[in-house]
UniProtKB/TrEMBL annotation:
Organism phylogeny: Eukaryota, Metazoa, Cnidaria, Anthozoa, Hexacorallia
InterPro entries hit by this protein: GPCR_Rhodpsn, GPCR_Rhodpsn_7TM
PANTHER family, sorted: G-PROTEIN COUPLED RECEPTOR (PTHR22750)
Species for this entry: Nematostella vectensis
Biological process, per Gene Ontology: G protein-coupled receptor signaling pathway
Membrane topology: Multi-pass membrane protein
Coiled coil: none
Protein name: G-protein coupled receptors family 1 profile domain-containing protein
Keywords, sorted A to Z: Cell membrane, G-protein coupled receptor, Membrane, Receptor, Transducer, Transmembrane, Transmembrane helix
Length: 344
């Protein structure tokens, strides 16, 4: 006998049986999500803070990276708490809250995940243009254009997420699969073109005697490292989201018939949210400018919290010199120096 209850607001059903059968998966999902929540919020906020407050980092590529960090920050501060609440309502058997929190969680999570995937695709296109067509890149890619493109990507992601509440699960999963395929194909094609262009430019520079040859080689090495960083981010996205997409597709075709499927769903959900914590760690490890800016921001915050005033090194040097002059002017004990008061 089917004991599931359909939600009236969207295509979702409540079934109390798996809660008892695979209770461990619910606890695992809640614990992992809560543990990843605070690092995701803090690290992504730090990345957003240093990019927006550091003048040298306000470049189009870093502004796209800031948009990606914003999506991950939203996942930590909104999606993960909502998801944990949704799981708790399922454990407690509150059908009304289960349906409401499920609808909100689905919309917020798919919006943020979609914005992150679109931004990662845009970063790959940005780097490909910067390397493959540098003159066209300088003419077309401006900070204003990047902001406009980011807003459009967020709007498209929100619209796509809303279809989860309107469409049948099978149709939604089909559209999600097409979107992921197009985005991943774009990322891979742009990466291949960029790496081939870097290799060609490196061979040209090595075969020519130029005044700024060393500077150009350093720039090419920087581009290459940035591209590798984007591929590492893509690898972690796949590791975190492919299990969820796989389980969701199986569920869309066969339904949530077995307890094993329900347990796999819970585990895959929580693994997907881990990506928001991993991404800022990759930025700091792989991009020296962002790493140094984050270290400086942390030092400044630590100094202010400890009640210390950060004084420039030049001021400290002047103060030490003035103090040495004062000490030299004070006569030693027992000396016969002139102790007459100064003339007013």
């Amino acid at each position: 006998m089917n004991s599931s209850i359909e939600c009236s607001s969207w295509a979702k059903s409540f079934d109390p049986k798996p809660v008892t059968a695979v209770f461990w998966s619910y606890i695992f999902s809640c614990i992992l999500t809560v543990l990843m929540l605070t690092p995701a919020v803090f690290l992504n906020f730090l990345v957003i803070f240093v990019i927006t407050r550091t003048r040298s980092l306000c470049k189009p590529s870093n502004m796209l990276l800031c948009s990606l960090a914003l999506a991950d920050f939203g996942t930590g501060i909104l999606a993960q708490p909502l998801y944990t609440t949704h799981i708790v309502t399922e454990i407690e058997g509150d059908v009304t809250l289960f349906c409401v929190t499920g609808a909100i969680t689905a919309f917020v999570s798919y919006t943020l995940a979609g914005a992150g995937l679109f931004t990662l695709t845009a970063i790959s296109v940005d780097r490909c243009l910067a390397i493959y067509r540098p003159m066209k890149y300088r003419a077309c890619v401006t900070p204003k254009a990047v902001v406009q493109a980011s807003v459009c990507m967020w709007i498209v992601a929100a619209f796509g997420a809303s279809t989860r509440l309107l469409l049948n699960v099978k149709y939604f999963m089909f559209s999600l699969g097409v979107t992921m395929f197009v985005s991943l194909t774009t990322i891979l094609v742009c990466s291949v073109l960029a790496f081939r262009s870097l290799k060609t430019q490196k061979e040209q520079i090595a075969g020519e005697m130029r005044l700024h040859q060393g500077k150009q080689m350093v720039q090419l090495a920087s581009y290459r490292k940035y591209l590798k960083t984007m591929l590492i981010l893509l690898g972690f996205v796949l590791l975190c989201y492919v299990p969820f997409v796989t389980v969701t597709m199986i569920t869309a075709m066969n339904g949530m018939e077995s307890n094993a499927t329900r347990a796999a769903w819970n585990v895959a959900d929580s693994i997907g949210y881990m990506n928001s914590t991993i991404n800022p760690v990759v930025y700091c490890l792989r991009i020296p400018e962002i790493r140094r800016a984050c270290q400086k921001a942390l030092r400044d915050m630590g100094a202010r919290r400890g009640g210390n005033v950060v004084v420039p090194a030049k001021s400290v040097t002047v103060s030490l010199r003035q103090r040495s002059h004062v000490l030299e002017a004070i006569p030693e004990e027992g000396s016969t120096a002139n102790l007459e008061p100064p003339v007013c």
